[in-house]
């Protein structure tokens, strides 16, 4: 198995896989310590796609995991023979595609009553591949951004541990099509419309980043942007 991503979520997944006896062939991240628990080779790559041949040669079981990963997989990695790329996404797909840091904010502003994590195959789109499994939890009427984000991270870890055996055994298959539910994409451009929500009753709790302020600089910049620099927009998703 190859792991691509960063942070505590990636490191926990690598550790869990190694302690369960699964091969950890390579860890692609910014921090070499992410590979230490598995005593695995480490690759610091700004663009993992540039190392497609190396990943294909290194992977002994054909499984590539993406966890807390902001890199977008492209060709030739997507068409590398024998590789199955799987992503654990912080959000319910296709309702919460894009950046989890942005999706959580708009989930609260739009009054979503559920959030969670999704395991899906990676294709040429962004969070559009076939869904293999999900782990849902309710959003309470008083829940704040940092609470939902933390539960989302925990759901990602739980989902990875739940689906790992089936993926390793080759028995994890799509459960439904991506068109089964409404789709929305939350990238950085969605933050250009954040100012139109400042009078929304859910705005205070949707923007209460708590300890995640340090990990979501794009939100901090958008929230602190002077009024004169805020782009015009409409109260909508996307």
TrEMBL record:
Does Ribonucleoprotein count among this protein's keywords? no
Name the domain of life: Bacteria
InterPro entries, sorted: Formyl_transf_N, Formyl_transf_N_sf
A Pfam family found in this protein is Formyl_trans_N
Q: Does the keyword Transferase apply?
A: yes
Q: List the Gene3D superfamilies hit by this protein, alphabetically.
A: 3.40.50.12230
- Name the UniProt record assigns to this protein: phosphoribosylglycinamide formyltransferase 1
Involved pathway(s) = Purine metabolism; IMP biosynthesis via de novo pathway; N(2)-formyl-N(1)-(5-phospho-D-ribosyl)glycinamide from N(1)-(5-phospho-D-ribosyl)glycinamide (10-formyl THF route): step 1/1
Q: What class of enzyme is it?
A: transferase
- What are the residue boundaries of the Formyl transferase N-terminal domain, all occurrences included? 70-152
